[in-house]
């Protein structure tokens, strides 16, 4: 039995498995998420962006604090 995968399906599969991993060279990280229209988006961001945000006090708008989430779900 032969299973065929489209080029787009293969690319999506590979990108799904490298999400959050640092690219060769160590300066950029692969990221992906669904936008508000339900379309998957991929991008590269600085590998140390988390550290930069913590140092500057900038909050990630996509992270919902667990306590707030529990309150809304109750």
What would you say this structure looks like, in words?
The structure is a single chain. By secondary structure, the protein is of the alpha+beta class. It has a domain at 28-74. Helix content is 38%, strand content 19%. It is built from 3 helices and 2 strands. The protein has helices spanning 7-18, 49-56, 66-73; strands at 28-34, 40-46. The protein has a two-stranded antiparallel sheet. The model has no long low-confidence stretch (mean pLDDT 75).
How many helix segments?
A: 3
What is the string of SSEs from the N terminus onward? HEEHH
Instruction: Note the beta-strand portion.
Output: 15-25%
Terminal residue distance: 49 Å
**Strand order, sheet with most strands:** 1-2
Rough outline: flat
Q: State the total count of DSSP E strands.
A: 2
The main pleated sheet reads as: 2 strands, antiparallel
Radius of gyration: 17 Å
- Unreliable spans are none
What value does the average pLDDT take? 75
Oligomer: single chain
Helix content: 25-40%
> How would you classify the helix and strand content by structural class?
alpha+beta
């Amino acid at each position: 039995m032969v299973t065929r995968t489209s080029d787009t399906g293969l690319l999506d599969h590979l990108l799904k498995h490298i999400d959050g991993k640092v690219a060769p060279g160590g300066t950029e990280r692969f990221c992906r998420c669904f936008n508000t229209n339900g379309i998957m988006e991929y991008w590269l961001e600085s590998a140390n962006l988390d550290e930069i945000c913590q140092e500057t006090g900038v909050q990630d708008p996509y992270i919902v604090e667990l306590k707030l989430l529990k309150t809304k779900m109750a």
